[in-house]
Amino acid sequence: MSIDIGTGSTSSTLAGATGLVGQADGARLWRGALGTAAFLVIWWVAASFQPTYLLPSPVEVAGAFVTELTAAALIQFPFGEGTIAATRLPVKLLQSLYHYVPGLAIGSVLGIGLGVGMGWFAWLDDALTPVTRVLRPIPPLAWIAFAIVWIGIGHGGATFIVAIGAFWINFYTASAGVEGVPREYTEVAASLGVQDDLAMIRKVILPSAAPEIMTGIRTSIGQCWMIVVAAELFGAPGLGYEIINAAQNLQLEVSVVYMLVISLVFLASDAVFRRIEGRVLAWRV
Amino acid sequence: MAGVDEPTVALSNVEKTFETADGTVQALSEVSFAVESGEFVCVLGPSGCGKTTLFRIIAGLETPTGGRVAVDGTPVSGPGMDRGMVFQEYGLFPWRTVTGNVEFGLEQRDMQPEERRRVAAEMIDLVGLDGFEEAYPAELSGGMKQRVGIARALAVDPEILLMDEPFASVDAQTRLMLHEELLRIWRETGKTICFVTHDVAEAVTLADRVVVLTGSPGRVRSVVDPDLDRPRDRTDEGFNECRDRIRSLIQ
Fold first, then answer.
1. Do A190 and B156 touch (CB under 8 A)?
2. Contact B45/B62 with Cβ under 8 angstroms?
3. For A170-222, how does the pLDDT look when each residue is reduced to its tens digit (9 = 90+)?
4. Helix/strand/coil (H, E, C) string of A107-165?
5. Which residue in A181, A192, A194 has the most chain B C-beta atoms within 10 A of its own C-beta, making it the best mutation to test that interface?
6. pTM of the predicted model, to two decimals?
7. Least CA distance to A284: which residue of chain B?
8. Do A182 and B80 touch (CB under 8 A)?
9. ipTM
């Protein structure tokens, strides 16, 4: 590998690279379309030699998708009475969101809170490091025992499990972010009149650690979907429960529909959060 | 408190030792000097002579293990708004615009937002960054970043400007320009400046007096008064003579 420091040839290399990128964009689209088509064809051919209950074909999955999207179902709220008429797919999605959203929110807030606290206050870090070291490697799903005993395995229990998953991810990234705040920032702030810890955290620590904190939230947005599915395998209603339930009824095409729904919801939420992240961290230029 | 003849910064017999894994290291030994109000003093020394430690002690970021440091007759007990700090690596808040950085210190006071804006605009104008008010630090060159650093420190109207090798990270041409700018700002504001550097020519260009440190441990070798008319010319005979005199002190 050679390093080119000549300005003239560097610009020509750059121009060449830009040309390559432009070319690659078109080529990538084509290759992507081709790969997807090949995958669908192989799937379809393989499925045509198997009964649906072992491997549903893409066409059967598409049919099941339409059925799930149109079959009537009722939205039931976790609290209070009353129902709203809807169809099956959005009802299942809403059921998962009932524990995904609060679990993600509660776990993230508490995780960021403790991570920032331990990152900033040395005494708190000293006091809690042994406990957090031991508890952190425990997979969120292992806490199902307490979820069952304390709350029961419904929305509450699943929320609890999801919150634990979000908690550790955010705890870790937030404390690492705070520890990475350059000392000069806090020193300059102190010389400019920031005196108490709360003001320092609000005006310097949080904005400086924001990139890491945002990464933690984005990671948990993805990871919490994995946890949601796992928690629902124990019986909480939602997309994950539907995957298992349909498989037990030998309706694998319905299982695949809900597997794909999880993927689409994840892709959508990740895309939305990336835009938020881009706005919040616009200063990174 | 502050008497008529009280120097702005007074150090007497300042000592600093650090405990390391290899034992005790003495960074500063019997450092004594004073900076008068409105004076431009450079603390000059080779790397490792403890000059940054000295800067941090005056700033209140480190506690001396011996001796006394007083600002306006009051012993230093921590960082304060009477001493504005400017760092080599700028220490700008990257999430704030130029205006946001300059306003930072003003926000810690009871000040109306319009008044903050007005002071910040004045400071940005003083350092010659008009037109870059809404730029983020990542969009600025090294020299421009340090102008923001100076404007931010001056915004809260400190008595003293403490600068730790502020121009060591910018290219030579920009550095010469920033020297002129800093001297202009010093004339216009009448601040006391305590400027740490390892560059002999920089010290001779800027300072009323040069405190020459030698390592290790860091001691005051001598205090040199360049006694040259401003603006100082680096090709001038007196300039070269002074520079050579200081160089021979360091070696």
1. no
2. no
3. 999 999 999 999 999 999 999 999 989 999 999 999 999 999 999 999 999 99
4. HHHHHHHHHHHHHHCHHHHHHHHHHHHHHCCCCHHHHHHHHHHHHCCCHHHHHHHHHHH
5. A192
6. 0.85
7. B138
8. no
9. 0.90
